[in-house]
Amino acid sequence: MGKRKNRKVSSSRRELVFDEEKRREYLTGFHKRKLQRRKAAVEEIKQKIKVEQKKMKEEVRYAPTIICFQRVFLLCSFEEIDEVERLVTAKTESVLYDHPSHTVTVTTISDLDLSGVGLLPPGIIEVVILQKDENQEESAAKFTAPLPKKAGDPLLSKRICSLTKTLHARSRSKSQKRPPRTMDGKKQPIRPTGRTSKAQRRRQTGKTGRNRE
After folding, report:
1. Cα Rg for the chain, rounded, in angstroms?
2. DSSP-based three-state secondary structure for 73
3. Where is this region: Disordered (predicted)?
């Protein structure tokens, strides 16, 4: 027989306390918590709209500078290509590589007169000419879209439109839940449509006669 191990009595015990007030608040506060969640969702949508509007303003602000740099880069690249083609006197081979986004042409040049320019000694070098794809030109044309003509026109994107639509849908559903009320607060009687019976006509004429008296 081995020695009996003494069990350690845990000093910290968990106690369950039943609070009637918290229970009542939980059971009667479903609508209150639903309104709080709805309010938090609306505030979150408004905050996202503000962030998207700020981003659009920054893009519009820096768009002319980006367009200017793109045009300068394209002009410089075209001038360099024209200068290289002018200096080339003999070509030995030309290899064309097609890529999904652009086209690369590698031309091996045997005779290139760069002594007058003072750049490189004559020899065999490779000239790489990049040609942009038509899809990139279309995307660049889309990127260089004109800015809004009027200062008061809002800057809207797909993200802002979707968030605004969600916000309006929430407010519209909230307003549609309330039934329309009449001016005097009483329900208007529903008049029967179609053909009426003889007894119904007598009741209606009797009511009008009493009202006239």
Report:
1. 41
2. helix
3. 164-213
pTM beyond 0.70: no
Angle of the 158-176 helix axis to the 30-87 helix axis, nearest 10 = 160
Tokens of 195: 């053909």
Spell out the residues 6+ positions from residue 126 whose beta carbon is closer than 8 angstroms to its own: 106, 107, 108, 109
Rounded CA separation 194/91 (Å): 96
Longest dimension (CA), the chain: 122
pLDDT in tens, 81-116: 666 566 555 555 666 777 677 777 776 655 555 544
- What is the three-class DSSP state of 97? strand
Q: Residue 122 in contact with residue 114, Cβ under 8 Å?
A: yes
H/E segment holding residue 94? strand 88-98
Q: Which residues of 50-68 are buried (b: 16+ CB within 10 A; e: fewer)?
A: eebbeebeeeeeeeeeeee
